[in-house]
Design a protein that fits this description.
The complex is a heterodimer of chains A (640) and B (215). Chain A contains 25 helices and seven strands. With 640 residues, chain A is mostly helical. In chain A, strand 1 and strand 2 form a beta hairpin.
């Protein structure tokens, strides 16, 4: 139902008179207004504060508490008002929603209290207007985060059914989960520090023996340092192997950055063990020891900030690349200029352009070592231009990197911004579904109406009362309007799934289009009337009289209604209702037959009735909707 | 010196603001439209006082400025037909309601139109329908005009229909219409042919009475 414009429904219905002269068929009767109520004032007493509004205002949103008959539960007979024991301040927003069609979120209100009120009155929060929606979402996210933080502290209890491997992995990832993990965490951290310090101290010259000059400590206390190194590498190897064992996906673990760092950190030691004291390779071996410094990167497991820094640099790769590129350009330009400027002077240090690179870099970064200085006047001029431009070129990309870093830092803090995007999509999807519900509601009520016919004819009264449930007068009037449009154009509304199926079927059976459309016109109106005689709950009316066709073309219509529909108001009573009716059809031999399948036989050849082919093709919907399985067993072709 | 410059720069801005505010006021007052009094409307239309009150409340709620322009009209009308595109038909409807052709439908236009549709005689209703179909208001309905109207109506059905809408469906419908209405086969339908034919058609007569009790 077009919410909010219910007041214009009478206008739309009146305007439907414009279709009347064009239609070829009689129009369906208008829904009876059982009680011609004058518009009256309703009093809503919310915890003592009385609100008054017109009844039609509340009727605008029939799927909420106040708009439906649910409010009758709160009616107080003596005082002739509706009493709600809720917060009157929050109720103000709720009532304004009915009046203006927009739901606003008051800033002073607590977010969970507001949510509760909305839930009570049956209003989905996604309808909050755009003016207040950001605020609402932010507050909600903050609240959720706070709750999540509280929850995480309680999450330390071990989840049951975790095997040893998973426990170990969890211990590695979150050191706070158990004391063992904490101990392990600190031990590895200590040994990383020890290893780094020994690497550093190894190279310090410590004390001199009288006959030799200063030797670095590493060569003096070779054995001691070797033992330390061995111990550290032992620990690291054990840790690496344990992680490899515990990892849920070993292949992914081995590809991850941290594990590569681990491997690189311990590999030099093993290579050193394997290698002999050969003179040729010992030089290479020495350089391998450089890689031991990578052990310091193992600290990044222990520090969140380091990880963020690494991630920032990775994501700022484009800015860094730009910085590098612009610097390179400037260096080449100035080096060339300086070289040619200084070429003339004697004993110039600027021997070649690559030699000038060093001067340019030192000048542009304002280091100015002074080992190379220009002597000619031109050289000095260009040198000063170089240093001035250096400042600019370096200063420009740096703020970009800094802002990137702060952005990523905050993004990391609120890592659920990505979750919020999904929520936005979900919100739009929900609103779309709610709007689609209006078109589906019409199709559903058509089904209801037709099942009603069936019930009329099978003569059972109780179920009929089941059916006359929720559709308010407004809804029935809207559906009547849509029904008139269908009659005017001699076509019917169907939902998307069926439409697509029809397209596929149409392609498969290659009916002659002109034939069917013609039949559509002449057949449509009359068949509906004839349908009344033969009780068939047929939704679509594009069937033709068999007696007008000598070719034996038969198009029986489908119970499309049974297939693939989003149930917006589906009740169990409805599905059981259908079962009852089909059961009845099996048992009851009143000579009434129910067609329950699509059978289209293209003319003039005799194709086998495709009923069996069709019904399994129809998707069997979820349990709440009408049960197709029972119907597919009853493929009876009604004799027209 | 600086103070002088500041003063000079401020002055023209103030003048500009005053001019703007006057223009703004004019604009606002043009858009806000107050309808004629209740008594006058009661006399002009066939609605009772209470009905006019209900109608106005609904109207004003949706259009606080008191007039409906074409876009709002299309919006409102489209909400009743979620499956299809009702904007073309709404355009024709808007022109039918906007009797003084000033580009907006005021409450008086609205209520006058509704009065004809809901409380008018069959003659008046048929007149109104003829006016709707006659797009250029020249007194004749040509096949092209009818085709436009028909396409607009079929557009409201949308894509997902059974049977599937074909390209030539509106055209065929127009042919049927003209076969029925165009008595002298001159290719246009005049108001007399139209009214005559409709009065002889039982279906149409019956359906005209359908919406009597809408308000």
């Amino acid at each position: 139902m077009a919410t909010g414009v219910a007041a214009w429904l009478p206008f739309a219905r009146a305007a439907a008179i414009g279709w009347m002269p064009v239609a070829n068929c009689p129009m369906p009767p208008a829904p009876r207004e059982h009680s011609k109520k004058q518009d009256e004032l309703i009093i809503l007493n919310v915890s003592g504060r009385r609100f008054q509004t017109w009844r039609t205002t509340l009727d605008r949103y029939p799927d909420t508490l106040l708009g439906s008959t649910e409010k009758e539960f709160f009616y107080n007979e003596e005082t002739k008002e509706y009493f709600f024991d809720r917060d009157p301040d929050a109720f103000r927003s709720v009532l304004n929603f009915y009046r203006t069609g927009k739901l606003h979120y008051p800033r002073y209100e607590c977010i969970s209290a507001f949510d509760e009120e909305l839930a009570f009155f049956g209003i989905i929060p996604e309808i909050i207007g755009d003016c207040c929606y950001e605020e609402y979402k932010d507050r909600k996210r903050e609240n959720a985060e706070r709750l999540m933080d509280d929850q995480e502290e309680n999450k330390d209890s071990k989840l049951p059914n975790m095997n040893f491997r998973e426990t170990m992995w969890r211990a590695f990832e979150n050191p706070h989960t158990s004391t063992m993990a904490l101990v392990f965490y600190y031990v590895t951290g200590f040994f990383i520090a020890v290893s780094v310090i020994t690497n550093v101290v190894e190279t310090v010259p410590c004390g001199s023996t009288p006959n030799q000059k200063d030797v670095p400590c590493g060569e003096r206390y070779t054995v001691a340092f070797f033992c330390m190194d061995t111990a550290c590498v032992m620990i690291f190897t054990v840790e690496y192997l344990l992680r490899l064992f515990a990892a849920p996906s070993r292949y992914r673990f081995m590809r991850s950055v941290m594990s590569i760092i681990d491997v690189v950190a311990i590999l030099p030691y093993y290579i050193g063990l394997v290698m002999t004291n050969n003179e040729d390779v010992s030089g290479a071996f020495v350089t391998l020891r450089v890689f031991r410094v990578f052990r310091i990167f193992k600290f990044s497991r222990h520090s969140q900030g380091l990880r963020i820094l690494g991630y920032t640099l990775k994501s700022c790769a484009s800015e860094l690349g730009f910085l590098l590129f612009s610097l390179t350009m400037a260096i080449i330009i100035f080096a060339t200029v300086m070289f040619y400027a200084e070429k003339g002077s004697s004993s110039s240090k600027f021997t070649s352009i690559p030699a000038s690179f060093w001067y340019t870099i030192v000048t542009m970064t304002t280091l100015g070592y002074g080992d190379m200085v220009p002597k000619t006047i031109a050289g000095k001029i260009f040198g000063s231009i170089c240093s001035l431009s250096g400042v600019l070129v370096i200063a420009l990309p740096v703020p970009v990197i800094v802002s990137n870093f702060s952005r990523i830092y905050h993004q990391n803090q609120r890592a659920d911004k990505r979750r919020a995007q999904k929520v936005q999509k979900a919100r739009l999807a929900r609103i779309r579904i709610a709007k689609k519900g209006s078109s589906n509601a019409y199709l559903q009520s058509k089904r209801n109406g037709l099942l009603n016919e069936l019930l009329d004819l099978t003569g059972s009264e109780e179920e009929e009362q089941h059916m006359n449930k929720t559709s308010s007068l407004l809804e029935s009037q809207h559906h009547h309007l849509l029904h008139c449009l269908e009659k005017t154009t001699a076509h019917e509304f169907v939902d998307e799934q069926l439409f697509e199926q029809n397209c596929i079927e149409g392609a498969q059976f290659s009916r002659s289009p002109s034939l069917s459309s013609q039949e559509g016109f002449t057949g449509t109106c009359c068949t509906h009337r004839s349908r009344k005689r033969i009780p068939l709950p047929n939704a679509s009316l594009s069937t033709t009289h068999t007696h007008t066709h000598t070719q034996g073309l038969q198009e029986l219509s489908a119970i499309h209604i049974q297939c693939g529909d989003q149930p917006s108001l589906s009740t169990s009573s409805r599905s059981s209702l259908n079962m009852k009716s089909s059961e009845r059809s099996r048992i009851n031999c009143r000579g009434q037959q129910i067609t329950t399948a699509v059978i289209s036989l293209p003319s003039p050849t005799n194709f086998p009735p495709d009923g069996d082919g069709h019904s399994p093709a129809n998707p069997i919907p979820a349990p709440p909707t009408i049960n197709t399985t029972t119907s597919s067993n009853i493929v009876k072709v009604s004799a027209l | 010196m600086g103070a002088l410059m500041v003063i000079f720069s401020l002055q023209p801005k103030q003048k500009r603001k005053r001019r703007d505010s006057v223009e703004d006021e004019l604009e606002l007052s043009a858009v806000r439209h107050r309808p004629e009094g209740l008594e006058q409307l009661e006399a002009q239309t066939r609605f009772s006082r209470k009905e006019l009150q209900i109608l106005y409340r609904g109207f004003k709620n949706e259009c606080p400025s008191g007039v409906v322009n074409e876009d709002t009209f299309k919006d409102i009308y489209s909400q009743f037909f979620p499956q299809g595109d009702a904007s073309t038909y709404a355009h024709f409807l808007f022109n039918a309601f906007d009797t003084d052709h000033d580009g907006s439908v005021s409450f008086e236009d609205f209520v006058t139109g509704l009065s004809i549709l809901l409380r008018g005689t069959v003659q008046e209703k048929l007149n109104w329908a003829f006016n709707l179909y006659d797009i250029n208001k020249d007194g004749y309905i040509t096949k092209e005009e009818m085709l436009d109207i028909m396409k607009a109506i079929y557009n409201m059905m949308g894509k997902c229909t059974y049977p599937i809408l074909k390209e030539e469906t509106p055209r065929q419908h127009v042919e049927i219409f003209f076969q029925k209405m165009d008595k002298n086969k001159d290719g246009v339908v005049t108001i007399d042919e139209f009214i005559d034919c409709c009065q002889n058609d039982e279906n149409i007569m019956r359906s005209m009475q359908l919406f009597e009790n809408v308000i």
